[in-house]
Amino acid sequence: MASAASVTSLADEVNCPICQGTLREPVTIDCGHNFCRGCLTRYCEIPGPDPEEALTCPLCKEPFRPGNFRPNWQLASVVENIERLKLVSTPGSDEEDVCQEHGEKIYFFCEDDEAQLCVVCRQAGEHRAHTVRFLEDAAGPYREQIQKCLECLRKEREEIQRIQSRENERIQVLLCQVATKRQKVIFEFAHLCQFLEEQQSILLAQLEKLDGDILKQQDDFDVLVSEELCRFSNLISELEEKNGRPARELLTDIRSTLIRCETRKCRKPEAVSPELGQRIRDFPQQAIPLQREMKMFLEKLCFELDYEPADISLDPQTSHPKLLLSEDQRRAQFSYKWQNSPDNPQRFDRATCVLAHGGFTEGRHTWLVKVDLAHGGSCTVGVVSEDVARKGELRLRPEEGVWAVRLAWGFVSALGSFPTRLALGEQPRQVRVSLDYEVGWVTFVNAVSQEPIYTFTASFTQKVFPFFGLWGRGSSFSVSS
């Protein structure tokens, strides 16, 4: 029995030069080359550039007469034998390539019924009026459709893979945020427990001192009362004795005795001094720092857990030429020397300011600004709207799309419609800026003492950016989450 490789090699020798498939109803033309009858007929029907020019062989270009087709029965027999060998040498091919009804090789495809046909099926009446094509010819358009579908499906698959990758990264970010929040809760509660233990010790020590002072004053009171009782008991005994004597003895020095008794004033001692009583009444005031710390703790905890730390970096495309930015774009320093910065529509040309990358159109975000004004100057921090003026004078107020505070040497101002100097417990050196886009809050807090600085209320309608400004030699700031 012939091997599959040898059968395939023989089949290649009986291929039609036009359709590249096995010869079907082979015919020979004048030059001796063989073609499928159907392929050669269609070739002859194709109009050439010169209708009068004779047809030439598709292989050797020799002229031939269209009507001079000679059936090559011997070659047809060879093709048939090769087809039988292919059926025998290819497992399962007899069931797949042979018509189940007529046992003939399937060569054709009916477009109307989507049926695969053999020669006998094609001649049947039910398919005569239908569009019937060779299998390869019929498969061509479907291959093109399949290719288009494959391209679309592959694009969809790539999109799903991109979504999967993006969402997996997002999940990892969320897991990191949850882990960070967990550490913050542990840290804040540990700090609170330490504070509560310290406060408990302080309050108990104060109560212990009050307890000792009360007992001491009780002892003093008991001594004083005993002395008074002793004096009054002596006077009472003296008068009782005087009253029991005869008249002559009773009248002796009677007037001085009565005056001494009548002028004797009773001291009315107090067991608790007014000062100690006031200390006892004022003791609840000692818990005010505890109450304030608890309130601050809850506010800080809710703040830390609620706002999303923002990864802030400065945008050099917006930086004024007098600002020196660090390589990591997280620190800026003022300099009177202008940098070689190309002008562009995004850059501030008069206000010595810089914006952060990105910006926000939703959500709750927070970032930390560390300010260094050791050599004087001032620093402005806040947020600005996307369309804030970059060229010319910049008015730092909400009407111009700026919500910011200015930190200078010795004072802090809220840059509202009219700048307001703020009365703070201490000069902030680290400012926590928080943005609630939906609610419209821009909040500033002393990041060290947690003392509130100022809160703007706005109605945001476009993207807003973290905003920073510097003035004065040596002044600088750095940003972090």
UniProtKB/TrEMBL annotation:
Listed SUPFAM superfamilies: B-box zinc-binding domain, Concanavalin A-like lectins/glucanases, RING/U-box
Per the record, the major location class is cytoplasm
Q: Which InterPro entries match?
A: B30.2/SPRY, B30.2/SPRY_sf, Butyrophylin_SPRY, ConA-like_dom_sf, PRY, SPRY_dom, TRIM/RBCC, TRIM10_RING-HC
- Per its record, what are the GO molecular function terms? zinc ion binding
The RING-type domain is annotated at: 16-61
Q: Which residues, by range, are in coiled-coil regions?
A: 143-170
Q: Give start and end of each B box-type domain.
A: 94-135
Metal-binding in keyword set: yes
Give the SMART domains listed for this entry.
BBOX, PRY, RING, SPRY
Q: Which UniProt keywords apply?
A: Coiled coil, Cytoplasm, Metal-binding, Zinc, Zinc-finger
| Domain called B30.2/SPRY: residue spans | 292-481
Pfam families found in the cross-reference section: PRY, SPRY, zf-B_box, zf-C3HC4_4
Asked if the Swiss-Prot or TrEMBL record annotates the protein with the keyword Transmembrane helix, the reply is no
Q: Where in the cell is it found?
A: Cytoplasm
**GO CC annotation: what is one?**
cytoplasm
Its GO biological process annotations read: innate immune response
Q: What quaternary structure, including any partners, is listed in this protein's UniProt entry? A: Interacts with IFNAR1; this interaction prevents association of IFNAR1 with TYK2.
Q: What family is it from?
A: Belongs to the TRIM/RBCC family.
What name appears for this protein in its UniProt entry? Tripartite motif-containing protein 10
- Name the source organism: Neomonachus schauinslandi
Gene from which this protein is expressed: LOC110586755
